[in-house]
Amino acid sequence: MKVCTLAYDGLCTFEFGLCVEVFGLARPELNIPWYDFSVVACDGGPMRATGGVTLTAAYDLSTLEDAHLILVPGWRGMDTPVPDHLVKALQAAHDRGAILASVCSGVFVLAATGLLNGKRATTHWRYTDALASRFPEIDVQPDVLYVDNGDILTSAGSAAGLDMCLHLVRRDHGPDIANQVARRLVLPAHRDGGQAQFIPKPMGPNRGGQIGPLLETLLRRLDEDWTIEAMARAAGLSPRTLLRRFRDSTGQSPQAWLTAQRVAFACDLLETTDLAVQPIAERTGLTTAETLRHHFRKIVGISPTAYRQSFAR
Question: How far apart are CA 74 and CA 19, in angstroms?
Fold first, then answer.
């Protein structure tokens, strides 16, 4: 299978590198034909890349004419127009049956082709609002790792591109081969595309401002019933002041922050213990298995069982 990764002036080095790592690196240990990999230049002459690197590519856009998979590893800026010759080359390749896939801001290149209209797509959480505003015909999914439409795939920020690339390997070669590649990359074998891009992490007292000690207390005692009034008493504040300072420090309401930390703790328990869902719900303060499943799916994007299958150590 012929895989082409685009290179352009202003190249996103990490996004480009992960595409090369997954599809361009020889893997004789797998004992199967690996991908026929090419780097394709979108611009003429030496191209600059993040980090002070310059590169040239042996192939131009004509190479896309018989590509099976074309990867767009980011883009030089979401406000930077996509050249007409690149748009036309991608449209023609897709019309011939090529699969298109973007990493992070590379979605703006695919959006410019019009091929994402009426389809789901994602990108880095910092860019989702801009994508939705500029391309209202696209069904933007703001909180997933990647979206697979079959012929067009998009991933969230940077490292989520690895999840998408491993997913493509899994589509082509099955889970055993994908798992071997993941092990070589020292990555989890599978993170489902619907998993949330991130979960808010606990904050220590030095990051919580005046309510830092309260945050530490909450984290130590997640299994307790914390009402707004109970939190206010523990912090020595009025409920109204607590709400204001909590949002100033964390960007969330007390209950939203607490729920996120309880789900984060549930993730740890699912990864490191054999506890059933109900005992985990009790330890985290979510009380019941039903409540845990509800909040877990809302924040992480998948069920506790699916999470454990992917990440249990």
Answer: 11
Q: Which tokens hold the place of 233?
A: 């008493």
Residue-wise DSSP of 267-290: HHHHHH----HHHHHHHHT--SHH
User: Which of 108, 100, 145 lies closest to 307, judged by CA?
Assistant: 145
Q: Report d(CA 262, CA 14) in Å as an integer.
A: 32
Its pTM stands at: 0.68
pLDDT tens column, 192-237: 666 566 544 444 434 445 788 898 899 899 999 999 999 999 999 9
Q: CA torsion angle for 135, 137, 143, 148 (degrees, to 10)?
A: -110
Query: Do the strands 36-41 and 53-55 form a parallel or antiparallel pair, or are they unpaired?
Result: unpaired
Alpha helices in the chain (DSSP H): 13-19, 84-95, 107-113, 128-134, 160-173, 175-184, 212-220, 228-235, 239-250, 254-272, 277-284, 289-300, 304-311
Q: Within a 10 A sphere around the Cβ of 158, how many other Cβ atoms?
A: 17
Instruction: Note whether 37 and 59 are within 8 A (CB).
Output: no
231-265 pLDDT per residue, tens: 999 999 999 999 999 988 877 899 998 998 899 88
CA pair distance 121, 128, nearest whole angstrom: 9
- For residue 16, give the amino acid letter: F
Give buried/exposed letters for 56-88 (b at 16+ CB in 10 A, else e). Answer: ebeeebebbeebbbbbbbbbbebeeebeeebbe
DSSP for 146-205, written as a single string: EEE-SSEEEE-STTHHHHHHHHHHHHHH-HHHHHHHHHHTT--S---TTS-S--PPP--G
Distance, CA of 150 to CA of 186 (rounded, Å)? 27
